[in-house]
Write a structure and sequence with these properties.
single chain; about 280 residues; mainly alpha; MetI-like fold; 2 domains; 11 helices
Length: about 280
């Protein structure tokens, strides 16, 4: 009995190492996820045991009470409509702030003189606590969705813009010089070097602004709103319902993690060239 050696494919060393690296990364990821799950379960168990024994439930509620409140909201139709409002405010505001921040960051990054002229104004506006702008937006735009969306845009835009400017200013000087020696046009330099580098920094700004986008959407609902998770939390607080407040916090944590994972997946796809 003979073996057809020609039918056996021998993997190149580089491909074998790459496959082993992916398998190792998957094993490490599974191990980390398992540790995270154990930690979460341990914290929830400690919270449940401490509630009513070490700390009065009025102050911290309990996981079982929070789950009961979430189930009640889902059953009576409160949860998903209000969650949809908060998600819409957060996503639209986050996307709008990202687009505006990227466009302005590219403009100011490509025209340093303009950025130096307007820098004091940009820094001054960014220094203004956005919570102070919330009443102004409510007066101008009402208590509906638009005032919260604009509030979120005002937060996200500056973080993305300043990071985009930094990305353009830190473009690879050696690569830029090489392209100039190859007589590349300005548009080619911008599209093939400057913009990709700016987008990489843009994602840093996006990740930094994630928590602010969620926070200010909810703050706007608490200050002046009749819909959204922030409204549910404010109503629960008015009724001295700690379980309702904690249930709102849990929903916001899930929303924040979902948005962060979505941005990370988008980043891995758009910036795949950096791993090549």
């Amino acid at each position: 009995m003979t073996t057809d050696i020609s039918a056996t494919r021998v993997l190149p060393v580089g491909e074998m190492l790459e496959r082993e690296g992916r398998q190792r990364a998957r094993r490490e990821s599974r191990a980390q996820n398992a540790k995270r799950l154990v930690l979460i379960v341990a914290l929830l168990a400690a919270w449940q045991l401490a509630s009513g024994r070490l700390i009065h439930p009025f102050f911290v509620s309990s996981p079982s009470a929070v789950c009961s409140r979430l189930a009640e909201w889902a059953a009576n139709g409160d949860l998903f409509p209000h969650l949809g409002v908060t998600a819409l405010e957060m996503v639209v505001g986050f996307a709008g702030g990202t687009v505006l921040g990227l466009v302005l960051g590219i403009i100011f990054g490509l025209f340093p003189m303009l950025e130096r002229i307007l820098s004091p104004l940009l820094v001054g506006f960014n220094a203004v606590p956005k919570i102070a702008l919330a009443p102004i937006f409510v007066i101008l735009l009402g208590i509906g969705l638009m005032s919260k969306i604009v509030l979120v845009i005002s937060v996200v835009m500056f973080l993305v813009m300043f990071n985009t400017i930094t990305g353009i200013q830190r473009a690879d000087k050696e690569l830029l010089q090489a392209l100039r020696l190859m007589h590349a046009s300005r548009s080619q330099v911008i599209w093939h070097v400057v913009i990709p580098g700016a987008i990489a920094y843009m994602f840093v700004g996006m990740k930094l602004s994630l928590r602010y986008a969620l926070n200010y959407a909810v703050v706007g609902e608490i200050l002046a709103g009749n819909r959204g998770i922030g409204f549910l939390m404010s109503r629960s607080l008015g009724n001295l319902d700690t379980s309702g407040v904690m249930a709102g916090v849990v929903v916001l944590v899930v929303c924040g993690l979902s948005l962060y994972m979505g941005v990370s997946m988008l980043e891995s796809k758009l910036l795949r060239w950096r791993l090549a």
